[in-house]
Write a structure and sequence with these properties.
By secondary structure, the protein is α/β, with parallel strands linked by helices. It has helices spanning 51-57, 107-110, 158-161, 167-177, 194-205, 220-226, 238-243, 262-267, 289-294, 306-318, 333-341, 353-356; strands at 11-18, 25-32, 39-49, 74-81, 93-96, 99-101, 121-122, 141-145, 150-151, 186-190, 209-214, 231-234, 248-253, 268-276, 297-300, 325-328, 348-352. α4 packs across α10 (306-318). The longest helix has 13 residues, at 306-318.
């Protein structure tokens, strides 16, 4: 007979979970494994709220595995380390991102691309290397293999730095891989949300000219005066879109809703690159003519490996890059999810876990 979440492991744990596709989160008792020889136990201080959390609690993608304790933008303190752990000590400030396991022996793992390992385990709603279910950062503690723990750089704030563990690496990795880092080149950022606003900051740190492409004219002032974008293009303004045809070297498309790619491809120069990062619920239509006639490229990217994620954190610390956040308490999470579904956040919710999560009496 299968054990309950509370008795599956020896260490009691507490968090908030969704039990079904209504997505309603509520207090949840479960358990964590013992700290193994290669493990780090983390007391969670802060956890960012990612759009993936919303999709997962509502089973939008069809593979949610209830109960779900979301959260993969975790910053905390290492409270216990196994005897084989060499990179971390008790008391270190650490991060845990989107993945917490992989086979550690395949071609992808050997190239520090654990995020593309066929046996990769997500931080939540997945099966871990020990064969048991993974629960995320909307909880008090988490136990993670040292390979999937990150050193949080000095000077990077724990709260506003937490979203970098997903949003930051999701935009940094494709910019590096696709060569979108040459100073003076023109980067378009489609969508100004959790990913897009970090892409603007990282793009500027690389020395790029950055234009935000958005359907919301009201975001122009924030994009330029708060986030540092060079210009703003309203995607529903046909005259301005026409005037911008062939003006951009690269576009990072962070839009998670179903949308047309044709207008974005038109903005690219010959040899331009469009990288899509959002995960719409339905397939997008890919027009071939603009690709062929302009030798343009459409690519994708999914977070990054552990080595590159550490590199990204260090880069952001050096350039004072953080997410713009709204700090919330744990019991405000359902309201936050409702607002996130309406894109009513500037630009990432972060849960103050340590100061607001406590088991009911």
């Amino acid at each position: 007979m299968a054990k309950s979440p509370e008795t599956e492991h020896p260490n009691k744990a507490f968090g908030w979970a969704a039990r079904d596709k209504t997505g309603l989160l509520s207090p949840f008792h479960f358990s964590r494994r013992e700290n193994g020889e290669n493990d780090v136990t983390v007391k969670i201080l802060y956890c960012g709220v990612c759009h993936t959390d919303l999709h997962t609690i509502k089973n939008d993608w069809g593979f949610s595995y209830y109960p779900v304790v979301p959260g993969h933008e975790i910053v905390g303190i290492a409270t216990k380390v196994g005897k084989n752990v060499t990179k971390f000590r008790e008391g270190d400030r650490v991060g845990v991102g989107v993945i917490t396991g992989s086979c550690q022996s395949c071609e992808s793992c050997n190239q520090d691309l654990e995020n593309y390992c066929p046996q990769m385990s997500f931080t939540y709603n997945s099966i871990g290397s020990d064969g048991t279910k993974t629960y995320g950062g909307y909880s008090e503690t988490i136990v993670v293999d040292q390979r999937f723990v990150l050193m949080f750089p000095e000077g990077l704030p724990s709260d506003s730095g937490a979203p970098l563990l997903c949003a930051g690496i999701t935009v940094y990795s494709p910019m590096k891989y696709y060569g979108m880092t040459e100073p003076g080149k023109h980067l378009g950022v489609a969508g100004l949300g959790g990913l897009g606003h970090v892409a603007v900051k990282i793009g500027k740190a690389f020395g790029l000219k950055v234009t935000v492409i958005s359907s919301s004219p009201s975001k122009e002032d924030e994009a330029i005066n708060r986030l540092g974008a060079d210009s703003f293009l309203v995607s529903t303004d046909s005259q301005k879109m026409k005037a911008a045809i062939g003006s951009m070297d690269y576009i990072i498309d962070t839009v998670s809703a179903v949308h047309a790619l044709f207008p974005l491809l038109g903005l690219l120069k010959v040899h331009g690159k469009l990288v899509t990062l959002g995960l719409p619920e339905k397939p997008l239509e890919l027009p071939i003519f603009p690709l062929v006639l302009g030798r343009k490229m459409v690519g994708g990217s999914d977070i990054g490996g552990m080595k590159e994620t550490q590199e990204m954190l260090d880069f952001c610390a050096k350039h004072n890059i953080t997410a713009d956040i709204e700090l919330i308490k744990m019991d405000e999470i359902n309201t936050a999810m409702e607002r996130l579904a309406k894109s009513d956040v500037r630009y990432r919710f972060v849960i103050d876990v340590a100061n607001s999560l406590s088991p009911p009496p």
